[in-house]
Amino acid sequence: MATAWHLQKAGIEFQLLEMSPRLGGRMRTASYPDSGTAEIGLEEFWEGNPLLEIMRELKLPLEKSASSFSSVVLDGRIHAFTQETNTDFLRSVLSGDELRSFQAWDAEAGRIQERLRKPPLPADLLSLKDQSFEAWVTQKKFGLSKKAQQFIRQQSEPEYGTSWTRISALDGIAEWRIFQGKGMQSFHLVRGNQTLAEAMAEHLGRSRILLNTQVTNIQSRSDHVEVIATNTATSEQKIFRAEHVVSTIPLFRLNEIQFSPELSTRRQEAIQTQGWGSYFTAHVFVDRAAERFWNALGPETLPILTGSSIGVVYEGYSPQTAGYRLLNLLITGDFGEAFNARTISFDAVGGQIRAGFEKLWPGFSKHIQRMTFYRYHPRAIAGWPVGRSRFDTLSELMRTPEGRLYFAGDFTEGTHSDDAARSALRVVGQIVESRKKR
């Protein structure tokens, strides 16, 4: 949709093909009786996200969301982020010596992030892809205490949706940009993040968007590209001819497309070695007496990073007239993988979630009225495992057109919506330049 937005601004005709019956990808907002709402996927937009400019152009109401750090459970204790700044919060979590070591480590991460903005990267930086983020953080030279190390792990793992042992150090450092220094501000759309997808669709024109349209073949010719797609409701097949094609299909699903000619061997290698993280969402309805648990340490305790079967505990929106409070659990990593699997029942998932709440807040589970679950595909978020990186030559290859075929989306640049939006700017720039040359 971001690609279509910028194509429209450039005066270039487009047709958007979407496999699902809805638009927005991970931007999904659930609505419940009595006007309760909660995000199913993407929770916030970080400052610097190009999508924020689109929201402002569409005059969508924004509200400031949580700071980059969140309340966190360490060694069985909740450290509540009720302070004004990240630094004040850190002082409440770490001792003086621990804080000084952490700040030195954080400054080193910041220096590396600055160097990442100036490609091509030198060999010493690229070599960081060959160790895990955990291995890099826990080096003796940084002198980080176990508590500081676990703080870094707890804050960062929900951003890439997997264990810090499974993401390369180079990409873990890149993800830390959200938290580095004073940290980034995040934003949320007042009526739910899905509002952006709906407003963009209206602006682009619904007639230019085909839902339930699954691409099965992409055939590149010397002067055009043919896309064969099937309507998932009627099985009717259509052929689209275009000057260019932009695929924002997650890389792991590209194996479901027949390409003619086949993608190059190196490009296939880039796709097959891509990593991922998992998200699973649970919306938990509790009686109003339960709010005493999360308000015990202050009115702004949520969200809480638990590192357990209940993941990150956010608060959904439940109006004062509703007979419930709505909690939104974003569950990642191994728990996310397990809960997404069809080999475990939702009853079993609910049992593990209740146990997670009991461990955090004894007596909490009796306040639970019901739960609603949302399974993502188990590769919901882009990641780069040890040995790979968004900065390596294989990733750069995915950002290079193959004839008239372009690849975009967060799986080509990074893990967040800002990376997906930047990929849209990249491919539209490439298309405009290509048209100028002809």
Tell me the CATH topology of the largest domain. Answer: FAD/NAD(P)-binding domain
Strand order of the largest sheet: 7-6-17-18-19-16-20
Q: pLDDT below 50 for ≥5 consecutive residues: which ranges?
A: none
- Mean pLDDT score, rounded? 95
CATH class of the largest domain: Alpha Beta
CATH homology group of the largest domain: FAD/NAD(P)-binding domain
Estimate the helix proportion, in percent: 25-40%
Overview of this structure, please?
With 438 residues, the chain is an alpha+beta fold. It has helices at residues 2-9, 50-57, 86-93, 96-116, 123-126, 133-137, 146-160, 169-175, 194-204, 265-272, 291-295, 333-340, 346-360, 393-398, 410-413, 417-437; strands at 16-17, 29-31, 37-39, 45-46, 62-67, 71-74, 77-79, 185-189, 209-210, 213-220, 225-231, 237-242, 245-247, 258-260, 275-277, 279-286, 304-305, 312-315, 325-332, 368-375, 381-383, 405-407. The chain has three domains: 2-65 and 188-275 and 381-437, FAD/NAD(P)-binding domain, CATH 3.50.50.60; 81-183, Guanine Nucleotide Dissociation Inhibitor, domain 1; 279-375, Polyamine Oxidase, Chain A, domain 2, CATH 3.90.660.10. It contains 16 helices and 22 strands. Strands 7-6-17-18-19-16-20 form a seven-stranded mixed β-sheet. Strands 12-11-10-14 form a four-stranded mixed β-sheet, with no helix packed on it. A three-stranded antiparallel β-sheet has the order 4-8-5. Helix 1 packs parallel to helix 16.
In short:
This protein is an alpha+beta fold and 438 residues long. The chain has 16 helices and 22 strands.
